[in-house]
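User: Integrase arm-type DNA-binding domain-containing protein. Structure?
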Amino acid sequence: MAKLTKRSVDALLPPQSGQDFLWDGDLKGFGVRIVPSGLKTFVLQYRTSEGKSRRIKLGRYGVMTVDQARDEARIKLGLVAGGQDPALEESSPVAITVAELCDWYIEEAGEGRILGRRNRPIKASTLALDKSRIETHIKPLLGKRFAHSLKVVDIEGMQSDIVAGKTAKPRGKGRGGVPSGGPGVAARTVATLQSVLSHAARLDKINGHPTKGVRRLAGNKKTRRLSTAEIRKLGEAMRFAERNGESPVGLAIVRFLLLTGFRLSEGQGLKWEWLHANACYVAFPDTKSDAQIRAVGPSAAKLAASQPVRGNCPYVFPSDSGDRHYTAAKACLARLCAMVGIEGVTPHTLRHTFGSVAGDLGFSELTIRALLGHAAQSVTQGYVHIDEALKLAVTRTCEEIASLLAGKGEEARAERNSKQAA
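Assistant: Predicted structure:
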């Protein structure tokens, strides 16, 4: 391991993901860290007198030279040798900015050292959203502020700035959404910052929670559902698209989402090992509500089971190539709706439609919540222990929607009404 020099640091290339280190060959624990953005930071790794491993930042490369960083590292190691812990000094509330605190949170949570809901490590998907809000909104608006000096007015001011579009960006090259602000985005960003500050206070990075009492904007709750007429139109669009070159996998996912009420990620990412088609249930090892068993109706189970298996791909709905799952169901749904003039529909609309149809059939709110996965069934129980009312509800709801998609809803309903009248 060679001694760190300007040339060796300049030659360090950023990783595709995560972080890489280049360590000094002369001074143990002294090194430089690089992240995918190309940012290089001098760090010092050491053990305290109690044997605890610590890693602290010395400064950014470019602002600090290699020699300056090495001198600073020697000073810190001298404190360690004297029984002190430099990391405790750095955690002083006066010294840490919001940006530094956010970086600490992302790093610690990424290593599983910060526990979230149900006292479990924060999920990678949740952390990715947190990181996006931090980089897009929090750092540009509050990153340079000292965390301990924040007040309620600062946080609510950030919220207002996001709504006003101060952190909006024009669309760049490639795919992906555009940060444009709005009450929902602003409220979720405030929630992320509050989470960061709450964890920091609990773990003694700052003294107290500086944003207690902040009021978050109420988001616009999505209530759009498909009417029975629109479900029939969607069925017509599916049949037409099937004959005219639309992706059969995309069509299958759209149909499956409507027949189950699954979230988009749950439907697209469904794996064969989770599907128990004969018993009409899916055993998710992990969802937004943790591991759970989700009952599905016969038509949905048959649809999933009928998908062709592609090589070693573990997914029920595979992508066109490779061993990943299909990801373009949202675009497929948009094309279907455009064919028949249905507006304002997203994958979540299909989920809301499933719940609404269950409500139309007379099932209780508690049963509907269970159908949608808000009230999890234990995976250890097995399907036979799922409530009989839930089995009945998911079957009737699924088959009602399947009938509407096939254009048979009115005839079936008229036949039921005729029998009841007789």
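The CA atoms of residues 85 and 129 lie 33 Å apart. Residues 183-202 form the longest helix (20 residues).
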